[in-house]
Amino acid sequence: MTTLTLRAARNCHHALNPLHSAIYFAPEYDEQFAAIGLERGPMAYFAGRAAPLGAVGAGTVIATFYNFHPDLVAQHIPAAWSSASPQQVLETRLLVTDACMTRILGPEAIASKEMTVAAELALHASEACERPGRVLYAANADLPVPDAPHLALWHAATLLREHRGDGHLIALAEAELDGLEALVTHTATGKGFTPYFVQTTRGWSAQEWADAQKRLRERGLLDADGELTERGAELRRAIEDDTDRLAFAPYKHLGAAGAERLTELAGAFTKAVLDGEGLPVEHMGKG
What we know:
Blueprint: H1 6-21, H2 27-35, H3 42-50, H4 58-65, H5 70-76, H6 80-83, H7 86-105, H8 107-110, H9 113-126, H10 135-141, H11 149-174, H12 179-188, H13 195-201, H14 206-218, H15 230-246, H16 249-275
């Protein structure tokens, strides 16, 4: 009997996560949220992802989103709820997801047996997600599972992504990295989005970025060129290892064979997302 490893669980997450994330970069996202009165860009993003929490204030979004500038959040939350209620946002979010997935994957993939199986596996995995301390996951877990398999898969991918993300914040707090320091150290690994992209989209100034680099140099985590020191690289590895451990339960529940099958199915859909330019790969590092 094959034993599921933390790396295999991480691989499954990586196969699923783009299916969740693609909607935020889709043209349908800003278009449909603008139609219900939300400003394009940060307001639509914050509202779309925070809506499961209800009509919360800026403080809750600052805490749960972690690495966005507090002032950027406060510019748009709670003002967004004056334009559209959380329920309106949730309904629109599913419309966006339907349009985005159908456009990128195509009607045949949407109606395929593989889509149904992937949704069943991902939902099964999500049964073992834990609510205590997982604010964004718990809020999404209160939402009904959509009937359509592709929407059910997106919902399950969202549950698994937010569950892992909530755990990641626990790991970052344990490492004593604030939201901006987390961005600086993560981009220094060469993975994920590039420094300029995350700095600007998350609302941080060049001076604030430089100040965070200075703090990290003083801790011995960055060198003079802004690269991770050996100590800094080890800290980032420890954060990812802790994140894997805290996110392991749903994949363990799914089992090695189920996780392998879900990785295979979701990976094929994710390939279509990437091939269809569903994510801004031009702003991603090469690490």
